[in-house]
Design a protein that fits this description.
Layout: E1 11-15, H1 19-30, E2 34-38, E3 52-54, H2 60-66, H3 70-76, E4 84-87, E5 93-96, E6 114-116, H4 117-126, E7 133-134, E8 139-145, E9 148-153, E10 158-161, E11 163-166, E12 184-195, H5 198-201, H6 203-209, E13 213-218, E14 221-227, E15 233-240, H7 245-248, H8 256-266, H9 273-279, E16 283-291, E17 304-306, H10 309-312, H11 320-336, H12 343-373, H13 377-386
Parallel strand pairs: 1-2, 1-11, 2-7, 4-13, 11-17
Antiparallel strand pairs: 3-6, 4-5, 8-9, 9-10, 12-15, 12-16, 13-14, 14-15
Helix pairs in contact: 1-4, 1-11, 2-11, 11-12
The structure holds flavin-adenine dinucleotide.
Flavin-adenine dinucleotide (FAD) is lined by residues 15-21, 38-41, 50, 53, 137-139, 167-169, 173, 190, 236, 287, 308-310, 316, 318-322, 324, 394.
Length: 395
C-alpha cells in the first residue's frame, strides 16, 4: 500500500520554542517537513527561566536518542547534579545520595541525568536548520482564510501556515482556538528565587546544595534548591496558600527587601542558613501551581493542535519537560508515519495518546504536590525511605 505523505507542501508553524516546540521542529525536519518555530524571546541569549531538568530513560532520553541528539546531550549534562540531599529545618541531613556510591549511567533505566535548561535549548536549536527559529515573535492571534492560518505577532509581523502547533506553555494563546477548558489551582504556590553567584553570596548553603538537588522540609513548608549550569542557584520556597494569595498578601514581589522580610517571618524557627538564601536573592517570582483538568477532552481539529504545558499543564513532578518531548515524538510520528488518511486523523490519534498519558501523570502530580509543598512529619519519613541506592525520583 502506498504511504501518504501528509506534510508534503505543507507549511508548519510551531508557536513557542521551549523543549516541546524545539524537539518537535527537530523531529519533523528529520522527516523533511517545512517548519518554523515562532518564539517570543528577543533572541537566543534571553535567559531561560528555571534551573536544571532531569531527563528520564523512557521519555526525555529516549526522545533525544530518536532525535539523534544523544551525543550532544552527553557532552552537556551535569554529572552528579541528579543527586538528592534531604535536610530538616535545622539543616540537619536526613538522607543523602551524595554519600551513596552509584554506578548508574546512560542505558540504565533509573539514571536521570540533569541538564541546564539553557544548555538543552541550545542543543535543540543547534539541531535545527538555520533560521528555523523566528525570534521576537510573540503570538497574539490568528484567523483562518481558505484553510490557511494567518498568524499575527506582537511586533507587527505576520506568518501563514497550513498546520499550527501551540507549544507556548501554560499561558498558551493558541489553546483557546482548541478548547475553552481553563486551568485550576492546585492549592500550592512557590516563590522562586535566583542567585547568580551563590558561592560568594551564600557560601554555606551553596556547600549544602553541593551541586545537586537540596530539599529542606519541616513544619508544613519546603525549600528546594538546585544549581544552574552557569554557576548560579535557583530555589523554590513552597507551601499551601489560598488561590488569590499573591494579590491579597499585599507583598510587592518586585521589592526584594519586602519578600525577604516576609520569608524570614514565614520560615521562623528555621536555621538562619536558609535566610542567607533569601538575602542573596535579588529577583523573586511567585508562581501559583495550576493544572488543566485531568479529564479534559476536545474534538481534534484538522490543522491545529497543542503539545506540552499548553496541552496539559500539571503541578511540577519532574515530568513536564519529559512529557512535552514525548508529545513531540508522538505527534511527529503520527504526522509522518504514513498510517493516517489525513492530518485530522493523525492529530486525533496523537491527542488520544497525549491526553491518556497526561491524565495518569497529572493524577500523580496532583496527589503529590500538596505533600511536597507542605509536608507532614509522616510524609518526610516516607520520603527518607525513598532514598535508595537506585536513586530518588523528583516526584
Ligand atoms: C518550579 C517548576 C519546576 C519544574 N521542574 C521541572 C523539572 O525538574 N523537570 C521537568 O521535566 N519539568 C519541570 N517543570 C515543568 C516544566 O518546566 C514544563 O512542563 C516544561 O517546560 C513545558 O515545556 P513546553 O515546551 O511545553 O513549554 P515551556 O517550557 O513553557 O516553553 C514555552 C515557550 O514558548 C514561549 N512563548 C510563550 N508565550 C509565547 C507566545 N505568545 N508567542 C511565542 N512564544 C511564546 C516561551 O518563551 C517559551 O520559550 C517545572 C515547572 C515549574 C513551574
Amino acid at each position: 500500500m502506498e504511504t501518504i505523505n501528509l506534510l508534503q507542501d505543507k507549511k508548519i508553524a510551531i508557536v513557542g520554542g521551549g523543549p516541546g516546540g524545539l524537539t518537535l521542529a527537530r523531529l519533523l525536519q528529520l522527516k523533511g517537513a517545512n517548519v518554523k518555530v515562532y518564539e517570543r524571546d528577543f533572541n537566543n541569549e534571553a535567559r531561560v527561566q528555571g534551573a536544571i531538568v532531569d531527563l528520564h530513560f523512557e521519555s526525555g532520553l529516549k526522545v533525544m536518542e530518536d532525535a539523534g541528539l544523544m551525543e550532544a546531550f552527553k557532552a552537556n549534562y551535569m554529572p552528579g547534579a541528579d543527586k538528592f540531599r534531604l535536610v530538616d529545618k535545622n539543616a540537619k541531613i536526613l538522607a543523602d545520595e551524595h554519600e551513596q556510591s552509584s554506578d548508574e549511567s546512560f542505558g540504565d533505566e533509573h539514571f536521570r541525568p540533569e541538564i541546564d535548561r539553557g544548555a538543552l535549548r541550545n542543543i535543540l536549536i543547534a539541531g535545527l536548520l538555520p533560521d528555523t527559529v523566528v525570534w521576537d515573535s510573540q503570538f497574539e492571534h490568528m484567523v483562518q482564510v481558505n484553510n490557511i492560518w494567518e498568524l499575527q505577532f506582537k511586533n507587527g509581523t505576520t506568518a501563514t501556515a497550513d498546520l499550527v502547533i501551540g507549544a507556548e506553555g501554560y499561558r498558551s494563546k493558541i489553546r483557546p482556538y482548541v478548547t475553552d477548558i481553563k486551568a485550576l489551582y492546585s492549592g500550592a504556590t512557590i516563590i522562586q528565587g535566583e542567585i547568580d553567584d551563590p558561592e560568594k553570596e551564600c557560601p554555606e548553603i551553596y556547600a549544602l546544595v553541593n551541586k545537586g538537588n537540596l530539599i529542606a522540609m519541616g513544619s508544613g513548608k519546603t525549600i528546594a534548591a538546585q544549581p544552574r549550569g552557569d554557576g548560579g542557584l535557583t530555589y523554590y520556597a513552597s507551601s499551601l496558600y489560598p488561590e488569590d494569595w499573591i494579590k491579597t498578601s499585599g507583598i510587592d514581589f518586585n521589592d526584594s527587601e519586602k519578600v525577604y522580610t516576609y520569608l524570614v517571618n514565614y520560615y521562623e524557627g528555621w536555621d538562619p542558613i536558609f535566610f542567607t538564601l533569601f538575602k542573596a536573592c535579588s529577583h523573586f517570582v511567585p508562581r501559583p501551581l495550576n493544572y488543566f483538568p485531568l479529564d479534559q477532552h476536545w474534538e481534534a481539529k484538522p490543522n491545529l493542535t497543542l503539545i506540552g504545558d499548553a496541552a496539559h499543564l500539571m503541578p511540577p513532578s519532574g515530568e513536564g519537560v519529559n512529557t512535552a518531548m514525548l508529545d513531540a515524538l508522538d505527534l511527529s510520528e503520527c504526522l509522518t508515519s504514513g498510517g493516517f488518511q489525513n492530518i485530522e486523523a493523525a492529530i486525533a490519534a496523537y491527542e488520544n495518546q497525549m491526553q491518556l498519558r497526561a491524565k495518569l501523570l497529572g493524577q500523580e502530580a496532583l496527589e503529590e504536590i500538596k505533600d511536597f509543598a507542605s509536608p507532614s512529619e509522616e510524609s518526610i519519613k516516607k520520603l527518607i525511605k525513598q532514598f535508595t541506592p537506585i536513586g530518588l525520583s523528583k516526584e
